[in-house]
């Protein structure tokens, strides 16, 4: 089965998923004919109830889950490959090394990819100040709050200079206040560095606030119920968005789709 | 700070009181110094034994045996641990044999080892390392198995090489657990060495303890037991401070 990818002169597709289905043991369908693409520089979110396969989908893009299903998944026109330098993956938990300082953790991404010491250190210092932790470079993770640790993880992710960021509920474990601060930080980092982002979350407000497009998925088997453009102007600020009528409208539209997915699932 | 002052004053009072009671008790005939010794006699023995150089020769042999047993035993254990972590099937295969060896009272092997290796250094080193090996082995395996799955996923998505993962993730994470095994391993090396010396040996503190005990020199036995206790405390203190330094991130 071959698929011809559309070559669009103006906007390149960074990620293309075509008719992708995945099932385990031939009957347990996880993903059912998933279709979407992500343009260069676009921020998309995958939302859906837990167990809808959104993390599996993200792990397929990261190459953590092998491409054993039907259909095609391409990143820059190639099969996803684990460890690719085009991709940076961020987990739900900060997964910092407790024996490394904030600086050592922020630089680990590039260090593991074989960069020389001066290169990853100076990059780590730069990114730590971008996330507001310049003064905590020598602190160990145990000395940092949850929010600060996730900021270090953001610094590690962004210091990779990868074009495509895959994020699996990176703020899922944070309290509401810290979450809003980090969402703002992510907005400004993405605005500054023009990354393409695939963001998995179950928080609809977060999805609306951050994304250019939100894909709503249904519970098992995972299907895409809706692909909604979030035409809120950028640069955005989380606090300003709370006051915006449009933000709340989009939120309730998403909510309706999500509910529909539930009803269908239960029915 | 107050706690610390209390402890210092407490020790300064408690230790002399105990020693004075023992000394007085021996002089008044409540404690038989022939069997239990007495502080003044112990001190006299220590001074004499130290001046003659005999104490230092004994200490030298015992410490040499301990460190050899510790170094050989823990190196072998670290290597075996690595193999076990890398090849779990090898571990499964070796497990019943290792378990059987590990539950066996190793001091029971001392007579056999003396028969095989003679009365010199080798037999006590063999017993010492047979104790330290298993302790360090189990802590090595536990430490390296304890590597976080999140850390491994992170490394995979970064495309880190296996050697990078080992030296920068698995090993640093395992060091505190491995080190607490090393601390115990060193203590058990000392135990194995002194135990073997007590069974039979040419030199060493254990050997001298036996000969003093058979000649009813209670002061001498007590003196050497205190030397061993002091040695043990020094070893534990030293290893603990290294351990604290290595685990400062915890």
Give the SSE layout:
The complex is a heterodimer of chains A (267) and B (250).
Chain A: E1 13-24, E2 28-39, E3 43-47, H1 54-62, E4 70-75, E5 87-90, H2 102-106, H3 108-112, H4 117-130, H5 146-158, E6 164-168, H6 176-193, E7 196-201, H7 204-210, E8 213-217, E9 224-229, H8 238-243, H9 245-266
Chain B: H1 2-28, H2 33-36, H3 39-51, H4 54-86, H5 88-103, H6 110-117, H7 121-145, H8 149-158, H9 162-199, H10 205-214, H11 218-246
Helix pairs in contact in B: 3-11, 4-5, 4-7, 4-9, 6-7, 7-9, 9-10, 9-11, 10-11
Summarize the structure.
The complex is a heterodimer of chains A (267) and B (250). By secondary structure, chain A is of the alpha/beta class.
Give your account of this protein's structure.
The complex is a heterodimer of chains A (267) and B (250). Chain A has helices at residues 54-62, 102-106, 108-112, 117-130, 146-158, 176-193, 204-210, 238-243, 245-266; strands spanning 13-24, 28-39, 43-47, 70-75, 87-90, 164-168, 196-201, 213-217, 224-229. Chain A has two domains: 13-86 and 163-266, Rossmann fold; 91-161, no CATH class. With 267 residues, chain A is α/β, with parallel strands linked by helices. Chain A is 37% helix and 23% strand. The model of chain A has no long low-confidence stretch (mean pLDDT 86). Chain A is globular, with a radius of gyration of 19 Å. Chain B is an all-alpha fold. Chain B has two domains: 1-30, no CATH class; 37-246, MetI-like (MetI-like fold). Chain B contains eleven helices and no strands. Chain B is globular and about 75 Å long. The model of chain B has no long low-confidence stretch (mean pLDDT 92). The interface between A and B is medium-sized, with 27 and 21 residues.
Question: How is the largest sheet of chain A built, in terms of strand order?
Answer: 5-6-7-3-8-9
Poorly predicted sequence stretches spanning 5 or more consecutive residues of chain B? none
**Structural class estimated from helices and strands of chain B:** mainly alpha
Report the strand count of chain A.
9
CATH superfamily annotation of the largest domain in chain A: P-loop containing nucleotide triphosphate hydrolases
Total of DSSP H or I helical runs spanning 4+ residues of chain B: 11
- Which value, in Å, is the CA radius of gyration of chain A? 19 Å
Cα(first) to Cα(last) distance of chain B is: 24 Å
CATH topology of the largest domain in chain A, by name, is Rossmann fold
Strand content of chain A: 15-25%
Element order of chain A: H for helix, E for strand = EEEHEEHHHHEHEHEEHH
Largest sheet of chain B: none
- Helical residue percent of chain A? 25-40%
Query: Do you know the CATH architecture of the largest domain in chain A?
Result: 3-Layer(aba) Sandwich
Question: Low-confidence parts of chain A, pLDDT < 50 over ≥5 residues?
Answer: none
What would the average pLDDT of chain B be, to the nearest integer? 92
Q: What is the domain tally of chain B? A: 2
């Amino acid at each position: 089965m071959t698929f011809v990818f559309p070559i669009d002169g103006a906007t390149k597709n960074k990620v293309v998923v075509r008719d992708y289905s995945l099932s385990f043991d031939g009957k347990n369908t996880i993903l059912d004919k998933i279709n979407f693409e992500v343009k260069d520089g676009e921020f998309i979110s995958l939302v859906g109830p837990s167990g809808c396969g959104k993390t599996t989908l993200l792990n397929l893009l990261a190459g953590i889950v092998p491409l054993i299903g039907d259909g095609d998944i391409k990143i820059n026109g190639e099969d996803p490959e684990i460890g690719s330098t085009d991709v940076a993956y961020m987990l739900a938990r900060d997964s910092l090394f407790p024996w490394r300082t904030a600086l050592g953790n922020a630089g680990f991404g590039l260090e593991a990819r074989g960069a020389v010491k001066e290169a990853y250190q100076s990059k780590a210092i730069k990114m730590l100040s971008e996330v507001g932790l310049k003064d905590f470079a020598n602190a160990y993770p145990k000395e940092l709050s949850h929010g600060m640790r996730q900021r270090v993880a953001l610094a590690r992710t962004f210091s990779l200079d990868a074009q495509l960021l895959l994020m699996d509920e990176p703020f899922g474990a944070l309290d509401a206040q810290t979450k809003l601060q980090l969402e703002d930080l992510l907005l400004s980092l993405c605005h500054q560095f023009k990354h393409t982002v695939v963001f998995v979350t179950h928080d609809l407000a977060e999805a609306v606030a951050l994304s250019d497009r939100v894909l709503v998925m249904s519970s098992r088997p995972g299907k895409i119920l809706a692909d909604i453009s979030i035409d809120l102007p950028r640069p955005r600020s989380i606090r300003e968005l709370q006051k915006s009528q449009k933000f709340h409208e989009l939120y309730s539209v998403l909510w309706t789709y999500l509910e529909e997915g539930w009803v269908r699932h239960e029915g | 700070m107050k706690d610390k002052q209390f402890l210092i004053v407490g020790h300064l009072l408690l230790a002399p009181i105990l020693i004075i009671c023992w000394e007085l008790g021996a002089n008044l005939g409540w404690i038989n110094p022939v069997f239990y010794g007495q502080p003044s006699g112990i001190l006299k023995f220590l001074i004499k034994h130290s001046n003659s150089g005999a104490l230092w020769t004994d200490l030298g042999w015992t410490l040499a045996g301990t460190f050899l047993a510790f170094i050989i035993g823990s190196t072998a254990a670290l290597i075996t641990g690595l193999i076990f972590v890398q090849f779990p099937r090898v571990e499964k295969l070796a497990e019943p044999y290792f378990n059987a060896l590990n539950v066996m009272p190793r001091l029971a092997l001392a007579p056999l080892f003396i028969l095989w290796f003679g009365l010199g250094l080798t037999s006590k080193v063999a017993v010492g390392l047979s104790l330290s090996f298993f302790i360090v082995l189990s802590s090595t395996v536990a430490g390296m198995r304890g590597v976080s799955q999140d850390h491994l996923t992170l490394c995979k998505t970064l495309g880190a090489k296996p050697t990078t993962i080992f030296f920068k993730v698995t090993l640093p994470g395992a060091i505190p657990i491995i080190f607490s095994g090393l601390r115990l391993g060193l203590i058990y090396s000392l135990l194995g060495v002194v135990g073997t010396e007590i069974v039979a040996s040419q030199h060493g503190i254990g050997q001298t303890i036996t000969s003093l005990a058979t000649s009813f020199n209670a002061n001498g036995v007590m003196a050497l037991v205190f030397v061993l206790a002091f040695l043990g405390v020094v070893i534990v203190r030293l290893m603990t401070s290294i351990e604290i330094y290595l685990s400062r991130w915890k």
